[in-house]
Amino acid sequence: MRNNQLLKKKVVRWESFLILLLLVEVIVFGLINPKFLIPRVLLGSINNFMTICIVSLFVTFVLITGGIDIQAGSIVGLTSIFIGVLWNDAGVNLYVACILGLLLGAMCGALSGFFVAYTGVQPMVVTLGGSFLYSGLALMVTNFSSTESYKGISGFPKNFTQFVKGRIFGIIPNQLIIFLVLVLIAYFLLHRTTYGRQVFLCGVNKNAASYSGIKTKLVIMSTYMLSGLGASLAGILLTAYLGTAKTDLGKEITLPVITAVVLGGTSNLGGTGSVIGTALAALVIGILRFGLSMANVNTQYLDIPVGVLLVLSVAIRFAGSNPNIQKRMGKLVDKFKPKQKAIV
Prior knowledge:
Layout: H1 2-32, H2 39-44, H3 50-64, H4 72-88, H5 94-119, H6 123-141, E1 153-154, H7 158-165, E2 167-168, E3 172-173, H8 174-191, H9 194-204, H10 206-211, H11 216-242, E4 244-245, H12 254-263, H13 275-294, H14 303-321, H15 323-336
Antiparallel strand pairs: 1-4, 2-3
């Protein structure tokens, strides 16, 4: 019980740090460019990195089990071109195509999850292969389209695109509301259900979880299905927002997604994690990239601070869990503490 309370306190402190970091970013970038602080501009920027926010929520489940998912970006592109070809060339109703796209994403995740859970192949190897496989399938799907792949498929109905581009009261983007709803769903699923506890137990000790009656292989496989489903949903929203279905829509999200999950407090070794932390970290990364672009930093350099955040977050989490480092830090702190004089 005491260990659980300490863990919760650490999570709360880390999430508080992320909130503080987010506020610092807003203040600093606001000082650099006052336009950054305009509510419509600041909130509207969330539309530009919503894909990272949504995908990272469900990749959190995967990392908690001790796995990793670097194929989500390929599933985003595959889903996008899949629904585009179904609607534009096969004459399928657009919303039916979206449902089929969600099923496709879940199937892609299930396939990779099966190999990870039931064959024992390293998750990095499986999802790396999956990223190439699903990118190749996306290019194959374009062969069934009358539109050249580099142009993308456009001309979607306004009721499909306007909802995603819309704003409540002319300020709050609809995509932000969708993201908040998904945060609540993911939070409830991971932190308030038996399934969520099983996900954590699989990451803490898979063998012990298996002996306690948990179907660990099925649980691990299901996390990859959730990740694939989240990537497909992100692909649909991104397609609607841009008004174009293309194969390469998610090609640049892998590094920001993994960084958001790890920076949010999820251990890369599994067993610990937080949906709220991931959501906050995704916003930190998105605001950082947007703020740097408004500060006239070349877009080709925007991945540098994200990479730095990833390395630092892993290093900090490792230092916090390593007893030898904790002991050394304690001695260092004691060394600089003022010595109390003896009372005569």
